[in-house]
Write a structure and sequence with these properties.
The protein is α+β, with helices and mostly antiparallel strands. Helix content is 19%, strand content 36%. Strands 1, 2, 3, 4, 5, 6, 7, 8, 11, 12, 14 and 17 form a twelve-stranded mixed β-sheet that branches. Strands 9-19-18-15-16 form a five-stranded mixed β-sheet, with no helix packed on it. Strands 10-13 form a two-stranded antiparallel ribbon. The longest helix has 11 residues. It binds 2,5-dioxopentanoic acid and magnesium ion. The site of 2,5-dioxopentanoic acid has 13 residues, from strand 6 and strand 17.
Length: 298
């Protein structure tokens, strides 16, 4: 099962479920379940799988996923963030290519990425709150003081009770690489700004994902209707396990249900394909779907 959030004019936020590869989205919103976070919390409270709770809800309507998958406008039904995460955390240099390219492009602090790639302690950084996240087809941002902002296509997971993973989504960890490269202490500014984190289009619950360590991730950058960059990686190439990453995140750190962890990028986009206004970034992960976002200069 996939769970998602969408917007209907006059009704506002709706909670939806999808089964298999069908285009049908069932609206299961109720007074007790007004968001996917409510669904996750209800499942924790009742110690019952999310699927069972979702299936026991009255279906309030059926919508077409492809019709909802449009640029968000107040007057039209459209997809929203699949969850409003209390926090999004990022994992860094979890793929060899990321360590290599970051070290090649960084002067003065060479070797810091290689160190973290091999060290027992992973790189974890605070990435975003819901207010800084955007959903499907909404604008990701290029901050006004960056001349080299890149897409970082990543597999993300959502936590339920404590360290339990409830499902997976697609993340674009949009990052101002010029700011990151100038000095490691500038990392928060390179990572956190409006539209720095795109999530969606849905959360594929665990039952939907055969093996999270064998998922193909494909990223395309489209400019003026042409694909100017295309790259791919398989999540099998990740250096760390998700349990290991969650373990470090949760060490003496209160982590709330719905917290989202983005697991790092293995597709390093060459500097020549730095984001430009009006580009579109598409990231597709098998068994989850395609997250598409246009780019806006902030
Ligand atoms: O330390 C820099 C950020 C690493 C990152 O975002 C990634 O590897 O995906
Ligand atoms: Mg990243």
């Amino acid at each position: 099962m996939k769970i998602l959030q969408f917007y209907i004019p006059d009704k506002g936020l709706r909670v939806g479920i999808m089964e298999g590869n069908s285009d049908e989205v069932f609206d299961i919103t109720s007074s007790g379940i007004q968001s996917t976070l409510d669904l996750i919390k209800r499942s924790i409270l009742l110690k019952t799988p999310i699927e069972a709770i979702a299936l026991s809800q009255e279906k309030k309507g059926i919508f077409s996923y492809s019709k909802l998958n449009i640029h968000p406008e107040k007057t039209k039904p459209h997809l929203l963030l699949p969850v409003y995460p209390p926090e999004v955390w990022g994992c860094g240099v979890t793929y060899k290519r990321s360590a290599e390219m970051r070290d090649e492009d960084t002067t003065g602090t060479k070797g810091i990425y290689d160190y973290v790639y091999s060290a027992p302690r992973p790189e974890l950084f605070f990435k975003a709150t819901s207010a800084r996240c955007v959903g499907p087809n909404d604008y990701i941002g290029i901050r006004s003081d960056s001349a080299l902002t890149a897409a970082e296509p990543e597999l993300a997971y959502i936590l339920g009770d404590g360290k339990e993973i409830i499902g997976y989504t697609v993340c674009n960890d949009v990052s101002a690489w010029d700011i990151e490269r100038e000095n490691p202490l500038y990392l928060p500014q390179s990572k956190i700004f409006y539209g720095c984190c795109a999530l969606g289009p849905v959360i594929s619950l665990n039952s939907e994902i055969k093996d999270p360590y064998n998922l193909n991730i494909v990223c395309k950058i489209i400019r003026n209707g042409n694909v100017i960059f295309s790259g791919e990686i398989n999540s099998s190439k990740i250096k760390r396990t998700f349990d290991e990453l969650t373990d470090f995140l949760c060490r003496d750190n209160p982590v709330l249900p719905g917290t989202t962890m983005t697991t790092g990028t293995g597709i390093m986009i060459p500097n020549d394909y730095a984001l430009a206004p009006n580009d579109t970034v598409e990231i597709e992960i098998e068994s989850i779907g395609k997250l598409s976002n246009p780019v806006k200069q902030l």
